[in-house]
Amino acid sequence: MDSPLSIDEVSRRTGLTAHTLRYYERIGLIAPVTRAAGGQRRYAAADLDWIAFLLRLRETRMPVARMQEFALLRSQGDATAAQRRQMLETHLAEVQASIAEMQRAAGILADKITHYRAIERSPLSSQKEKAA
User: Fold this and answer.
1) Which residues on adjacent β-strands are paired with residue 42?
2) CA 57, CA 90: separation in Å to the nearest integer?
3) I want to staple 43 with a disulfide (CB 3.0 to 4.6 A). Which of 47, 67, 119, 123 is the partner?
4) Domain limits, the chain
C-alpha cells in the first residue's frame, strides 16, 4: 500500500464497518488516525497491520477490555513487551482451557448420539414401530 486509504477502503479490506473503525479509534484500540485536509481519516500501512492483529485477537475471543489494555501497553513501546507477552500467554491458556471444555462437551454429545443410534437399531425399537 503506497498511499493512505480512506475509511471506506479500509472497511472493504478488513470487513469492519466504518462505524466499528471509528469506535475502535474512540476507545483506544486504534491510535488516532492521520486526517486529510478535509478531516477525513487516512489509514497508513502500519494502521492496517495493527487492525489485522486486532482482528486476530478478536478471533481468539479476547475481550475488548483486554484488547484495550494490550493496545495501551503497545503504545508505550518495547518496554512493555514482557507484559504483552504475558497477556498473550494468559489468554492462550484460557483459549486452551476453553478448547478442552468444548472437546469434553463434544465427547458427551458423541456418546449420546451413539446411544440413540443403538436404540434406533435395536430389535425392540423396530418391533415397537411395527406395532404403532
Assistant:
1) 34
2) 13
3) 47
4) 1-75, 81-132
Grid cell locating 17: 464497518
The answer to whether 21 and 7 have CB atoms below 8 angstroms apart is: yes
pLDDT, tens digit (0-9, with 9 covering 90-100), for 102-117: 999 999 999 999 999 9
Residues with Cβ within 8 Å of 52's Cβ and at least 6 positions away in sequence, in order, are: 14
Nearest to 57, CA basis, from 11, 94, 3: 94
32 contacts 67 by C-beta, under 8 angstroms: no
What confidence tens digit (pLDDT) does each residue in 72-88 have? 999 999 999 999 999 99
Q: Comparing C-alpha atoms, which of 19, 83, 15 is closest to residue 51?
A: 15
Question: Which one, of 94, 70, 93, lies nearest residue 82 by Cα?
Answer: 70
